[in-house]
Automatic annotation (TrEMBL):
It comes from Neomoorella stamsii. The lineage of its organism: Bacteria, Bacillati, Bacillota, Clostridia, Neomoorellales. Residues 48-100 form the Aconitase A/isopropylmalate dehydratase small subunit swivel domain. Its EC number is 4.2.1.33. This is 3-isopropylmalate dehydratase small subunit. GO terms for molecular function: 3-isopropylmalate dehydratase activity. It catalyses: (2R,3S)-3-isopropylmalate = (2S)-2-isopropylmalate. Transmembrane segments: none annotated. Pfam families: Aconitase_C (PF00694). The keyword Amino-acid biosynthesis applies. It comes from the Bacteria. InterPro entries: Aconitase/3IPM_dehydase_swvl, AconitaseA/IPMdHydase_ssu_swvl, IPMI_Swivel, LeuD, LeuD_type2/HacB/DmdB. Keywords: Amino-acid biosynthesis, Branched-chain amino acid biosynthesis, Leucine biosynthesis, Lyase. Heterodimer of LeuC and LeuD.
Length: 166
């Protein structure tokens, strides 16, 4: 799986309330959540982000409550992947469960700036900053996680596996 796109950067400790504010949690509609993605961190983000772009952040991305709405909002906004120095554990699991590729790389988070064009090889865990000519390493996804993400998340992955055995 190769992901390539322009980067939007955020700092440390971006919590789930900054990703999708609690005032919008009365819906689970992905398109509605996307309209408010990152609103409390950057009110202009949802209007600027283009399909296939990448979020890059510092440490502890997705901290706070365990709401699944946060990665859903990011994915529905068209973000192809998130790179961060570190992720809150529950956000990491929720992101994988809904099929949002995330990559933990402190070096990439420190080296990538807003507007940089980045290419990610999920199989190798390689992140190449095409703008700066730098390469960073993240943990590669094991094959089953690549399948899960390619399927669109845990539920579609399981449905596909069940259908294959029926």
């Amino acid at each position: 799986m190769i992901i390539q796109g322009k980067c939007h950067t955020f700092g440390n400790d971006i919590d789930t309330d900054a990703i999708i504010p609690a005032r919008y949690l009365n819906t689970s509609d992905p398109e509605e959540l996307a309209r408010h993605c990152m609103e409390d961190a950057d009110p202009t983000f949802a209007g600027r982000v283009q399909k296939g772009e990448i979020i890059v952040a510092g440490k502890n991305f997705g901290c706070g409550s365990s709401r699944e709405h946060a990665p859903v909002a990011i994915k529905a906004a068209g973000v192809a992947a998130v790179i961060a120095a570190s992720f809150a554990r529950i956000f990491y699991r929720n992101a994988i469960n809904i099929g949002l590729p995330i990559f933990e790389s402190p070096a990439a988070a420190a080296g990538i700036t807003a507007g940089d064009e980045v290419k990610i090889d999920a199989e190798k865990g390689e992140i190449v900053n095409l703008t700066k000519g730098e390469t960073y390493q993240a943990a590669p996804f094991p094959p089953f996680m690549q399948e899960l993400i390619a399927a669109g998340g845990l539920m579609p992955y399981v449905a596909r596996k069940v259908k294959a055995h029926v």
